[in-house]
Amino acid sequence: MADTTTTPVVLGSAQGSWFARVGWRHLVAIAAVLFSLFPIVFVVSAAFNPLGTLSSTSLVPTRLSTENFSNLLTRTEFRSWFLNSVVIAVVSAFAAVFLSALAAYAFSRYRFKGRRPGLMFLLLVQMFPQFLAIVTIYIMFTTITELYPRIGFNTYWGLILLYMGGALGANTWLMKGFFDTIPKDLDESAKVDGATHTQVFFGVILPLVTPILAVTGLLSFIQTINEFLMANVFLTAQDAKTLAVGLFGLVQGDRANTNFGMFAAGTLLTAIPTVVLFYTLQRYIVGGLTAGAVKG
Amino acid sequence: MPDRPTTPATPERRKPVLQREGWGITGTNPLALLAKIIGLGLVLAIAVALAGPLLADGRWVLFGVLVASTLLVLAVYVQPYRIPPKYLLPGLAFLLVFQVVPVLLTITTAFTNFGDGHRGPKEDAIVSIESSSVQRTADSIDYVLTVAAKGPTPDGKLVFLLTDPATRQVQIGTADGLTPAPDAQVGTTGKVTELPGYTVLDIGQASARAKDIENLSVPTARGAIRASGVSRAYEGSKTRSYAPQCDCITDKATGQTWTADPKTGYFVSSTGDRLPQGWRVNVGLGNFQRLFADPVLGKHFTGMIIWNFVFALAVVFGTFAVGLLIALALNNPLVRGLKFYRVLIVLPYAMPSFAMLLVWRDMFNQDFGLVNQLLGTDLNWFGDATLAKLAVITIQFWLGYPYMFLVTTGALQSIPSDLTEAAAVDGASRWLAFRTVTLPLLLVSTAPLLIASFSFNFNNYNAIGLTTEGGPFPPDSPTAGGTDLLISYTYRLAFGAGGAQYGFAAAVSLVIFLIVATVSVIGFRRTAVLEEIN
Q1: Does one domain contain both A46 and A102?
Q2: Which residues pair with B200 in a beta bridge?
Q3: Do B103 and A125 touch (CB under 8 A)?
C-alpha cells in the first residue's frame, strides 16, 4: 500500500484510476481464491481419479470415475466411521452448548461469592488443554473401562463424556459476553410477572441468544469432527473409529500412495456436513465471535 | 462492567423474588415440579447404576466419592435459596472430573518416574519379579487354560480361566491371585465355554492379545501360574524371591542379589545391573533437570521451545495480516462478486482440517507431490529441517487465514465509517487513517481471538502429528525432531514406540502450561490496556 500513502481518503468519491480504486481489490481476491482452492481442487481430482493413487493424480482430472467412492464404501468401515463421527460430534456439540449456556446464565445474571475467581479459573483451566493430561486421562479411563465397559474405550459415551469436560472453558466466556448484551430489565419484568428462574432462562434468555448458541454449537461440532489425538487413543476397534482416526489409518505409512484416491473420496464426503453447516450458520459466526470477545 | 444496564440488587428487592422461586411448589406450574422430580430421579438412578460395580470391586474410596457427590447434587437442586450453583453444577462437574482432576494428577506425576518399568508401588514390582522368574519344574501342575476378558467385550481386562484336569474345578486367575468360579460351563476338553460376566476369547481374539497372555502371571503360594500357548497353563515355582531383611532380591539358582535403590526405584546388583521391573518413586525436580541440563536433550529442548514460539507467532501474525489485507480489499461495496469471493476464500476453514492436513502432507511428497510438480522442483520437503518447518507453517497458514479473514471482516464492518471519514477530513492519508484509527479499533475486538489463536497453535498437535510427525530427526536426537512442537514431543514420550515415560511427559506438559499461561496473561493485560484507550 506504499503507493497510496499520499492519497487522502475521501470515501464515496471516485478518485484515481479504476485499478487504484477497485482493480487491486479484485487481484487480491482472485489470488486468495486460487490459493484457497487449489488443494481442494486437488482433492476433487484425486477422488475421481480412476487409478486412485497419489502418483497418478494431477491438479486437473483427466478421466472421471466413481470407483474410489464405491471402494471406500465397500472395502472399509467408512459408513461406521461417518456415523460415529456425526453422532459423537452432534451429541457433544449439543451438550457443550447446553452446559455452557447454563453456566453463562449464572455468571451473567447473578452476583455471587466466587464469581470473579470462577471466571478466572475457567480462563486458566482452558490454557491447560485437556490433551496435555492425556496420560492421566488414559489411566483414568483404563479403570473406567474395567468398571463400566459401556462408557469406556471404544464407545461413544466415553469420548463424549471426555469432550464434555472441555466444554465450559472458552464457550462460557464467549456466551457470557453475549448474554451481557441482553438487557436485564427483560428478566426482571418476567420475574415480576411470576416467572421462576428456570422460566426466565428457557423462555426469555435462550430465544434471544440463538446466534451465540449457533456459533458455539458450530465451533464445537467442527472441533469434535476434527479431533484426532484423544480419539486415536480411545478408539482402537475398526468399527468404533471416527472419521479422523479411520481416514488417518487409510493413508498411514506406505499406504499413502495406493489409498490416496479412496482417502480423497472420504475427505469429500466428510466435508459435506461441515461445509453445509458452516454456510448455513456463517452469518452468525462473525457477529457472535467478536461480540463475545470484547466484553469482560 | 460498564456496558451492562445496572440494577442495584439490594437485599430488600431480591428477597420476595427468591421466595417465589422456592421449591417450585408455591408456583403455579406442576410441570416444573414434575420435571424436577424426574431429573433428580435420573440422577439417583445413574448413581445407583454407577455404585454397583464399585461395590462389587470393593473400591470404597470411589464409592464414598460417589455417595458424597450424589448428596451434593440433591442438596443443590432441592434447596431453594442459592440459584447460581444450580446452573453451574452440570458444567463444573464434568470440568472437574474430566479436566481438573486429570490436570492435577498430571502435575503430581511430573515429579515422579512413573512410566514403563515404574508403574506401581514397590510391592507390585516384587510380585512381578518373583512371578516372572517362575520356571517349570518336574512337579509342576498343569491346567487347561481358557483365555477370557472381563466384561461383555473381548477387549476387557484379560483373565485366565484355569480348569484343574483332575477335578474339573474352574478358577479365575488374575494378577491378584486365584478366585473360584463355580458358575463356569466346562466343555469336553476341559475348556470353559461360558462364564457369566466374562467373554471367552476364540483363538483369533486370543492370539491378538498374545502379549497380554504372555505377561499375565497369576501369583500362588508355590510360585505362579503362567500360560504356555493359549490352551495350557502350568504352576511353576519361583527362582527369585524378595527378603525384607536385606531389602533385596535373591536368585536361588545363581545366588546373585539385587538391592533396592529408593532413589531410582530399581533393584540394583553390586555390579550395577538393574532388574527391568522397578517401582514408582518421587524424583523431585529430576525430570525438569533432565529437560534443561542434560547436554544433548537440553540443547534440543531449548531449540524446540524457540521453534514452538516461531511456529505459533508466524501462524497467528501471518494469518492475521493476510486475512486483514483481504478483508480490507473486499470491504468495499464497489467490488463486484463480493459474495462469490467470500464464499470461496472461506472454504478451507469449512473443510475438515484433519483430512486437509493429510492431503497437504501428501502434496509435499517428494516423488509424487503436487507442490514439487507445480514449482518444478524436486525438494525433499520433510527430509530437511528448514524446508519441513516452512512446509508446516504454510499448511497451517492455509488452514487458518480464512478464519482471520472472517473475523477481521466482521470487525471492520463494526467500525463506524464516520471515524475514518473524520480522519480523512483532517487530511490524514489512507495509510495514516488505517494505522491510527482502524487498526487500534480492530485490535480491541480481535486481540482476545489472537491470544486464543496463539494458545491453540502453540499446542497444535494435529499440524505436526498428521504431517511430519515431528521429523526429520537429527542423528544425535532420535526422539526430538526438527518440527516437533512441545505437544507432539510430549505425545511421543507418553505413547511413542520407545516406551512410556509418563512422568517425564507430564513434566513437559507442565512447562507448556506455564509458557501458554504466561503469554496469555501478558496478552490479556495488554488487551485491557487497549480497551482503556477507548
Answers
A1: no
A2: B148
A3: yes
